[in-house]
Amino acid sequence: MHLIDPSRDYALMNKTEDALLDEHKIPTAFFSPPFKGMYHNSKLGRWQRVQEPYQEKEYVDQYTRGQA
User: What is the structure's pLDDT at 1?
Assistant: First the structure.
């Protein structure tokens, strides 16, 4: 599954056509995630682990368990 990185999309909008063509000359293996569940952060220029969606119920359960 391909994850959409809005910061990367924004960066692509501001690039010229030549810059985009140069970027596509980079081998595609460079862009493939080294491990499952990671995505490329274009701002930091490195791979990052995908954050799980925030589950409020689990957080509340953990918090109330800690209070008991």
Answer: 46
Reported pTM = 0.24
CB 23 within 8 A of CB 8: no
Q: Which structure tokens are listed for 57?
A: 């119920």
Helix H, strand E, coil C: the string for the chain is: CCCCCHHHHHHHHCCCHHHHHHHHCCCHHHCCCCCCCEEEECCCCEEEECCCCCCHHHHHHHHHHHHC
Cα(48)–Cα(46) distance, integer angstroms:
7
Checking phi first, is residue 37 left (phi over 0); if not, alpha (psi -120 to 50) or beta? left
